[in-house]
């Protein structure tokens, strides 16, 4: 290891809080690992990146609240005093100055983009959750508080509204993949975000609903449908879009399901909805794939194709993209066709992609149980 690097590490370590996981030395070490991997993938200068990481959250003078600018100037002065050419010291300072999320210039150099993205990657995934909770504790804020409608729409809190860890997720963390400046950083952020989103979805559910959102293990709906179907002499089929086979999996993980489950169609593309399930092109053009008419035709088509007496259909927007103001992410339509006719229901789920898919499968099975028990139409 070069002498300058060891000297800089020793200097930086002495100025960061060794026990602060949010912005202290542990955070710097994690960002360094992300940054070196990004530098290799994106062709950035690793020495400039190393130095920029060690200075990026450097403690600023108490009178200088603009810490990224203060840290940048500190980096430039220290590096020049220790023999760095002025242009390379300036490159480090530029990266430090432009790494901020809410302030500072847009990262322009490869090294600045790497530092920016590495710092944000440490705010996602399991580590990101821990940092958000730690930041809330440090500032006397709660883990969870329901955001106001104003905050949800604009990011501006009402007077006296707390900025909980959940607020930080809604305002900042869930948007981080969109703000990445490198292709590699964007891909890694998209892989980490579902971990963050799943935690905060569960946090919200547990705080606001508690046991209401949980089913007892013996009440798993897929374990109830078989006896109810067999009592009527009916067989079941499915037509799935956004769940893409998950509903069929949930049904068939129950031993003996071959006695009442026929099979199904994974109609992910509109062409399959049309050609296999018989959804009219005009319905898809006017109402879209995620709509009541579409799931009605899907359920009827599944009955016709498989010969089953009962068919469930699902079509929705699992996320993270694809939503619209009228059909936001988490919107799911369900169809149910029986010998008595066809019905449809709509639901909205607040989870990440996988959470929305699981919730949709559970909703469909619970609805089927209600119908088979004669409690719903």
CATH class of the largest domain: Mainly Alpha
Would you identify the regions where 5 or more consecutive residues have pLDDT less than 50?
61-65
Q: Record the strand order, biggest sheet.
A: 2-1-3-4-5
Distance between the termini: 71 Å
What's the helical proportion of residues?
A: 40-55%
- Give the strand tally: 5
Reported CATH architecture of the largest domain: Orthogonal Bundle
What Rg, in angstroms, do the CA atoms define?
A: 27 Å
What name is given to the CATH topology of the largest domain?
Hypothetical protein af1432
What order do the helices and strands follow?
HHHHHHHHHHHHEHEHHHEEEH
Task: Output the structural class.
Answer: alpha/beta
Counting structural domains, the number is 2
Mean pLDDT: 90
Number of helices: 17
Shape: elongated
Strand content: 5-15%
Q: Biggest sheet, open or closed, and with what strands and sense?
A: 5 strands, mixed
Description:
Helices cover 53% and strands 9% of the residues. The protein is built from 17 helices and five strands. It has helices at 3-15, 25-42, 46-55, 67-81, 86-97, 110-121, 125-138, 149-154, 165-171, 176-179, 183-208, 225-232, 246-252, 270-275, 281-287, 292-306, 353-372; strands spanning 236-240, 261-266, 310-316, 331-338, 341-348. It has a five-stranded mixed beta sheet with strand order 2-1-3-4-5, with helices on both faces.
């Amino acid at each position: 290891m070069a002498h300058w690097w060891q000297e800089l590490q020793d200097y930086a370590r002495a100025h960061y809080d060794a026990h602060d996981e949010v912005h202290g030395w542990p955070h710097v070490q994690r960002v360094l690992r992300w940054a070196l991997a990004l530098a290799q993938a994106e062709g950035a200068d690793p020495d400039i990146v190393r130095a920029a990481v060690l200075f990026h959250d450097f403690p600023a003078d108490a009178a200088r609240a603009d810490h990224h600018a203060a840290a940048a100037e500190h980096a430039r002065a220290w590096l020049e005093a220790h023999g760095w050419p002025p242009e390379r010291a300036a490159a480090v300072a530029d990266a430090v100055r432009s790494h901020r999320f809410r302030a500072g210039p847009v990262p322009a150099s490869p090294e600045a983009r790497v530092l920016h993205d590495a710092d944000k990657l440490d705010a996602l995934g399991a580590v990101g959750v821990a940092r958000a909770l730690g930041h809330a504790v440090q500032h006397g804020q709660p883990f969870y508080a329901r955001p106001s409608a104003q905050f949800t729409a604009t990011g501006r809190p009402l007077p006296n509204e707390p900025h909980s860890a959940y607020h930080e997720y809604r305002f900042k963390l869930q948007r981080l993949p969109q703000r990445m400046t490198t292709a590699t950083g964007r891909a890694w952020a998209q892989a980490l975000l579902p971990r963050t989103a799943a935690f905060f979805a569960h946090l919200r559910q547990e705080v606001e609903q508690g046991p209401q959102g949980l089913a007892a293990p013996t009440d798993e709906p897929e374990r109830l449908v078989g006896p109810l179907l067999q009592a009527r002499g009916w067989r079941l089929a499915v037509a799935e879009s956004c769940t893409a086979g998950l509903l069929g999996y949930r049904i068939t993980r129950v031993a003996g399901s071959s006695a009442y489950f026929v099979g199904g169609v994974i109609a992910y593309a509109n062409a399959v909805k049309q050609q296999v399930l018989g959804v009219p092109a005009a319905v898809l053009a006017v109402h879209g794939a995620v709509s009541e008419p579409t799931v009605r035709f899907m359920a009827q088509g599944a009955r016709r194709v498989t010969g089953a007496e009962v068919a469930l259909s699902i079509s929705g927007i699992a996320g993270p993209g694809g939503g619209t103001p009228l059909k936001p992410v988490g919107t799911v339509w369900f169809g149910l066709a029986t010998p008595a006719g066809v019905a449809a229901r709509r639901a909205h789920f607040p989870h990440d992609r996988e959470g929305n898919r699981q919730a949709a499968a559970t909703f469909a099975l619970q609805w089927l149980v209600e119908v088979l028990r004669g409690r719903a139409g």
